[in-house]
Amino acid sequence: MSLRAKQSARKIRILVAKPGLDGHDRGAKIIARAYRDAGFEVVYSGLHQTPEQIVNTALQEDVDLIGLSCLSGAHMYLFPRIVELLKANKADDIAVVGGGIIPEDDALKLKTAGIKEVFLPGTSLSEIVNWTRANVKPHHYAERD
Amino acid sequence: MFTQETLRQVHEGRRQWETEVEKTIEQKPERKQRFSTVSDLEIERIYTPEHILDLDFARDVGYPGTFPFTRGCQPTMYRGREWTFRMFSGMGSAADTNKRWHLLLNQGETGLSTAFDFPTLMGYDTDSPKARGECGKCGVAIDTLRDFQTLTDGIPLDKVTTSMTINPPAPILWAMYLVVAEKEGISWDKIGGTIQNDMLKEFIAQKTLMLPPEPSVRLISDTIEFGTKYVPSWNTISISGYHIREAGSTAAQELAFTLADGIAYVQDVIERKHLDVDSFAPRLSFFFNSHLDFFEELAKFRASRRMWARIMRDRFRAKNHRSWWMRFHTQTAGCSLVAQQPYNNIIRTTTQALAAVLGGTQSLHTNSLDETLALPSEFAATIALRTQQIIADETGVTNTIDPLAGSYFVEALTNQIEEIAWEYINKIDDMGGMLVAIERGFPQSEIADAAYHYQQQIEDGEKVVVGVNKYSTGEQIYPPLLQMSDKLEQEQIARTNETKRTRDNRRVIQTLNDLRAVSKTDKNLMPYVIEAVKECATEQEICDVWRDVFGEYRESSVRL
Predict the structure, then answer these.
(1) Which residues of chain A have a CB within 8 Å of the CB of B247?
(2) Topology of domain B57-459, per CATH?
(3) B451 and A26: CB-CB below 8 Å?
(4) Could you say which residues from 506 to 535 on chain B have a Cβ atom under 8 Å away from some Cβ of chain A?
(5) CB of B130 within 8 Å of any CB in chain A?
(6) ipTM of this complex prediction, to 2 decimal places
(7) Best residue in B140, B199, B203, B207 for a mutation probing chain A (most A CBs within 10 Å)
């Protein structure tokens, strides 16, 4: 981490990620930009990432939050798998949220599986940004430096 | 179109009227400072003959079935035949989808359209580690010819046309269709349908990616050449703006990038295959989005036909009038639907469908009310189909052709969208064509900017989404949703394993080796794909040959 980043107040760091084979990236890109404009540090994973790739990127980038977007219907496998892998890497202090084409029943199950919040189509950017400010705190980076 | 005297009177009348309007506005301002379309084109208070001074009836509007086709492709349009009711449909196993297809046909659907799951779209079999969790989720899972035979069971392939939304593996799924027809004793000149097969818009928008752009375009030219020679009623490409729009483009960008893609394909077939443009151009088909802004959409459709006719006649020197006409499928805008108060989605889809019909579409898919939550239930899909049927049979809009022609507003908007689209096309030409523009990320960044701009307009309340940023109740309404079986993935893997066990594996290896050898030459690959498919080579086995020969295309991560 650069000296400049250490000296300034640590910003919330977010990985916006597209797990699985789904290519619908409009939402992910808009969210990534909105997070950036809200003053967060943002990395966008690019498309077609496996859960393993996403968790590796999250660890390397030392993020505080992973925002997943999936519109293919594969969220019930992909989202919990990412939470599992974070646990296995002792990094379950990284919060995971998601959005996409997700029925309410699935959203409830995902929350039970450790997904902190599920945002459905129509959710406003300000709701997502406000939720993030209220619920995600920057890690004390010394812990993982 | 107007005499000098008429125009003088119009001008004078308008000045007087505007003086009155100013007084009214002083007392009671209009609701907004600025009125604009969904694509943020500013719209004026009123349109008059002064807005279409340069419009030449014969040159710009004309008659249906004649150049420049602004008013429609066929001389009689819907008075002769309704558009095809073609519902995009696919879920779970081939048997599940076959059942839904029969249901829709029984309800009066007149054409089929196939939604594949993501592993199929990306060239992976269900048992690939990359496919975990995806099987049958957003479409039907097809691994081998046997799945495809189940999919088309009981469907009369010589009577119903079938569209397949498939891109990188398009030659393979098309080969499956051809082989099934052959096995049923239906000759290839008796079957009709469409493969999407448009890779340029995949790099721009939909992102089902497999090979780099150059070999991708080569596979497309192979299919176009093969279709031209052996499957004369098949549309071997559906040059698609739909996904460009879904990714967030404006209407004019959708139009411009689609036509620029079309130009690139025509150019490639002429240069690579040395085919006469009139031999293949009549089978090129298009696919557009019908979004929320009613007039903007129907103006876009009218402009699209006129522009393509001019491109084909003037740029490519096509002589056959069928090379000039643009036939297109339309789908209502999935991205316009919301999860809040989902039954309102029926109304959104209805007005979008109406715009497509008034814009002269050849076929139409109408989205279901529940698509922001899951794949369509039978209940929702039937309402969506009925929406089209009500427009066709009850509203009377099919009685006359292009009923909005001559509206000052519609003609002015048609011109305006055309102008913006030409500017983009000229810019792309200056860059060296669409392949170069895509490599530079030009259309991608234009679309991302437009998407973000629109989202911010929603955030600011400048654009209204009913139930979201206006008339929100906070109440949660959940329509009954389609439930897919959890066992699907295991069952599909078992089926494919069984096929692998019972096929002639020596022949499979032989046909794949042949395909590999020919892929390294510039011979047409279709005959070799057909041979491999016949032996029940899996989709991924064939795609792996190509990944190996041509390399794989990947998107990388970005720090914002």
Answers:
(1) 25-26
(2) TIM Barrel (3.20.20)
(3) yes
(4) none
(5) yes
(6) 0.90
(7) B207
Distances in Å between the alpha carbon of B552 and those of A64, B120, B128, B166, B543? 32, 16, 16, 18, 10
Strands A95-100 and A41-44: unpaired
Q: What is the pLDDT of residues B22-45, one digit of tens each?
A: 999 999 999 999 999 999 999 999
Write out the H or E segment, with its range, that includes residue B264. Answer: helix B251-273
CB pairs under 8 A between A and B: 131
Give A 21-50 residues with CB within 8 A of chain B: 21-26, 29-30, 32-36, 42-48, 50
Domain A11-136 is classified in which CATH homologous superfamily?
Answer: Cobalamin-binding domain (3.40.50.280)
Contact by Cβ (8 Å): B196, B162: no
Residue of B118, B338, B456 with shortest CB distance to A72: B118
Q: What is the pLDDT of residues B414-430, one digit of tens each?
A: 999 999 999 999 999 99
Taking a C-beta distance cutoff of 8 angstroms, is the pair B498, B373 a contact? no
Residue B221 CA to residue B438 CA, distance in Å, equals 19
CB of B270 closer than 8 Å to CB of B318: no
Exposure pattern of B200-223 as b/e (b: 16+ CB <10 Å)?
bbbbbbbbbbbbebebbbbbbbbb
Structure tokens at B391: 């427009």
Among A11, A15, A18, A26, the strongest candidate for a mutation testing the B interface, having the largest count of B CBs within 10 A, is A26
Each residue's pLDDT tens digit, B50-106: 999 999 999 999 999 999 999 999 999 999 999 999 999 999 999 999 999 999 999
User: Cβ of B81: how many Cβ atoms within 10 Å?
Assistant: 11
The span from the CA of A127 to the CA of B468, in Å, is 12
Q: Which long-range contacts (CB under 8 A, 24 or more apart) does B254-257 make?
A: B254/B288, B254/B289, B254/B300, B255/B288, B255/B300, B255/B303, B255/B304, B255/B307, B255/B417, B255/B421, B256/B420, B256/B421, B256/B422, B256/B423, B256/B424, B256/B425, B256/B428, B257/B201, B257/B204, B257/B424, B257/B434, B257/B443, B257/B447
Domain boundaries of chain B, sorted by first residue: 57-459, 490-550
Chosen for mutation from B117, B120, B134, B208 (greatest number of chain A CBs closer than 10 Å) is B134
User: What's B329's DSSP letter?
Assistant: E
Cβ distance of B207 and A25 shorter than 8 Å: yes
Q: pLDDT band at residue A140, thresholds of 50, 70 and 90?
A: low
